[in-house]
Specification:
Blueprint lengths: L2 H6 L5 H28 L4 H32 L2 H27 L5 E5 L4 E5 H26 L1 H4 L5 H25 L2 H19 L18 H12 L3 H31 L4 H26 L8 H23 L9 H6 L3 H28 L6 H28 L4 H28 L11
Antiparallel strand pairs: 1-2
Helix pairs in contact: 2-3, 2-4, 2-5, 2-7, 2-8, 3-5, 3-9, 3-10, 3-15, 4-5, 4-8, 5-15, 7-11, 7-14, 9-15, 10-11, 10-14, 10-15, 10-16, 11-14, 12-14, 12-16, 14-15
Length: about 450
Amino acid sequence: MTMSTHLLRQRRFLPLFCTQLFNAFNDNLYKTAMVLFVVYSVYNDESKEATFSAVASALFILPFFILSALAGQLADMRDKAAIIRKVKAFEIILMLIGASGLYLAWRGYEMPVSIPLGFMTIETSWPIAIMLLALTLTGVQSTFLGPIKYAILPQHLQKEEVLAGTGLVEAGTYIAILAGTILAGWIPVEWAAVGIIATSILGYLTSRSIPDAPPQGGAEKLDLHILRASIELIRRTMHDKQIFYAIIAISFFWTIGAVLFIQFPPLAKNTLMASKEVASLFLVVFSVGIAIGSVSINALLKGEVSARYSPISVIAMGLFVVAFYVVCRYWESYGMTEIMGVSEFLAWPLASLIMLTLLGIAIAGGMFVVPLYAFLTTRSAADQAARTIAANNIVNSGAMVFGSLIAIGLSALGVPVVEQLLLSAAMCLISAWLGKRLHRAELEHPHPIGNEGVY
């Protein structure tokens, strides 16, 4: 029996794994259904479509930046399983809000509203505003689950099981993203409204079987000053070189991922002249690749937590992004004017090459990022693991919001979406350098596998 199969048979892991699957599935079913509906049924302008996709991503990410410090404190100071159950109960309410937005949009209600976002104002309709509100609340929910899904693993798993458990959670997350993305692209929007409510109920039911995970440190006072808590959390976490480089490298990875996910729907519609089902297929291929990379790196490292393959993995990712850019530019020379369905798209000779380059991007990305998450949970003290993940989420989300703003700015300046792919490729070089620095720090100060602690 493999380590992965063994873990999937254990109550100390399976309910958490299933809860995370339902959570990732629901987030992506809702977000993808919303974005594809708006891009393909509301707007008819590449710049507006790219801007909306970027705004949606930024609103989902923003709660991570604001609330991660509070989420990390709660996860270390309270029972992690109890927090999961409360958050999953909250998800049922927010998905009712999101479903109402989808339903109103499907019914064609066009009640205008202006949404001020500080640096810009979006002119849209009430159904879209309701959907964006639910998306932001979904980000809040994920913010409080984020530190727990990795930090709880060393508490329930043996030291030699942590990397396998991390890989399973990461692979399972992307399989769930795959399923949610497929459904969002293929089912009617009114079915998606029903599906997100049903899935939120299933997620709450599975969360009730997660074993208790009480706090492992002494009694501490909760700091409710969000800014001060965030700064202090990052300061306390980032003093360890390995954790510092792991967090910065993960941040650049997710900035790249955020920009790519922003680009996919408008790129599919306007550059490749493909339907929303093809846009969904792109995201599916990306998710499958991440899952493959997540499992593959565990096999290569044989359970060891190490960044030695990270630099070459992210360089390969950058090369695949460049290849994807070249194929997209060549595709534009076909001069197509009609939107194609999946069968029509796949009939073109270059379609398979597009899919292969996307798969390559994702596999290399999964191989890069999974060991870095394992660093965060195994290089921090047991009673600080959730806050380490929370600090990572703060830095990650800040970087992703910055990436979203860059995408919004480039779209506002009229830079074609396909040209924005080169930004993602360039960021891979920075990630490779950070991966190299992390591996060097790892060799200078090796840690045993497990939560031996650095504080």
